[in-house]
From TrEMBL:
GO terms for biological process: mitochondrial phosphate ion transmembrane transport. The lineage of its organism: Eukaryota, Fungi, Fungi incertae sedis, Zoopagomycota, Kickxellomycotina. This is Cu/Pi carrier. PROSITE patterns: PROKAR_LIPOPROTEIN (PS51257), SOLCAR (PS50920). Signal peptide: none annotated. GO terms for molecular function: phosphate transmembrane transporter activity. It comes from Coemansia asiatica. It is a multi-pass membrane protein. Solcar repeats lie at residues 12-97, 110-196, 213-297. The keyword Lipid biosynthesis does not apply.
Length: 320
């Protein structure tokens, strides 16, 4: 007895997209923890390391050894699993909902605007779940020698005891400023790059390619989208790292956004960009590949089309 296919744009479909997002984001962000940790430290103190390899050498030769590269890994895994669930699940939900509101014809004609609006809404909600874990992660990773609070649980308790709920969400505005443009570029550029590959490079409809070939297109488009994401969101990422660092002024207050901008200047805002391009490019490609692989495994189509159909679709058969 064959399994009944999951209907596209059904509640079950959105739920499966959320599960795919957990698998895609939680695992990939955790795997990149060493690069992320070094990047955060370089943003807070550009003199900390001369580059990625110098940072790896200094951390592994220190007291913590190899495990020091995965500082903040638990917070990263939990936070980005929650964010991935919201990002991918809500994206598909709002893409369909907004598309239905304006109609299939307008959705097809203004598909990039549809991708941008759906991804912005999805990321806004996903970041509310991510922010407390991002705060814990950055606080752990940017702690100066002798100021470390400890592990995940002790850092959580310390922030709650000293700053309350506000302490977990003081970085929500710059996080939105970083993540929403990032996700808008990630989804809109990915969908358009996939379409361009089929139309202009391969010059054949998506349906004529096997699932493994489609996943190859997914990975290539994901990497190109990731490079664009890294550049667009990097200044805000630097601000988030500095804002959540443990440094405080004489009055006992954390750094302000204006103070950070004055301190770093234009060049400082772009510190750590190269490791972030490598991290985000690899991360984004891997996320799309894992997400689409999960969809294929569960009988769903890969993300993106060749421009021949409305991006919202109405049934399982419309996306074959």
């Amino acid at each position: 007895m064959s399994k009944k296919p999951i209907e596209i744009n059904s509640n079950k479909y959105f739920m499966y997209c959320g599960i795919g997002g957990i698998l895609a984001c939680g695992t990939t962000h955790f795997s990149m923890t060493p690069i992320d940790m070094l990047k955060c430290r370089m943003q807070v103190d550009p003199r900390a390391y001369r580059g990625i390899f110098d940072g790896i050498r200094k951390v592994t030769l220190g007291k913590t050894g190899l495990s020091g590269l995965y500082l903040g890994g638990t917070a990263t895994f939990i936070g980005y699993s929650l964010q991935g669930m919201g990002k991918y699940g809500f994206y598909e939900y709002f893409k369909y909902t907004y598309g239905q509101a304006i109609g299939a014809e307008k959705a097809h004609r203004h598909k990039t605007l549809l991708y941008l609006s759906a991804s912005a809404t999805a990321e806004f909600l996903a970041d509310i779940m991510l922010c407390p874990l991002e705060t814990i992660k950055v606080r752990m990773q940017t702690a100066l020698p002798g100021t470390s609070i400890g592990g995940f649980t002790s850092t959580l308790k310390h922030i709650r005891a000293t700053e309350g709920l506000r302490g977990f969400y003081k970085g929500i505005a710059p996080l939105w400023f970083r993540q929403i443009p990032y996700t808008m570029v990630k989804f809109a550029s990915f969908e358009n790059i996939v379409e361009a590959i089929y139309k202009r490079v391969l010059k054949r409809p998506k349906s004529e390619f096997s699932k493994s070939q489609q996943l190859g297109v997914t990975f290539a488009a994901g990497y190109m989208a990731g490079i664009m994401c890294a550049i667009v969101s990097h200044p805000a990422d630097t601000i988030v790292s500095k804002l959540n660092s443990v440094g405080k002024d004489a009055g006992g207050k954390g750094p302000s956004i204006g103070g950070i901008l004055n301190e770093l200047g234009f060049a400082g805002i772009w510190a750590g960009l190269l490791p972030r391009i490598f991290m985000i490019g690899t991360l984004t490609a891997a996320q799309w590949f894992i997400f689409d692989s999960f969809k294929v495994k569960t009988g769903l189509p890969t993300t993106g089309g060749d421009g021949s159909k409305s991006p919202i679709g109405k049934s399982h058969n419309d996306h074959r």
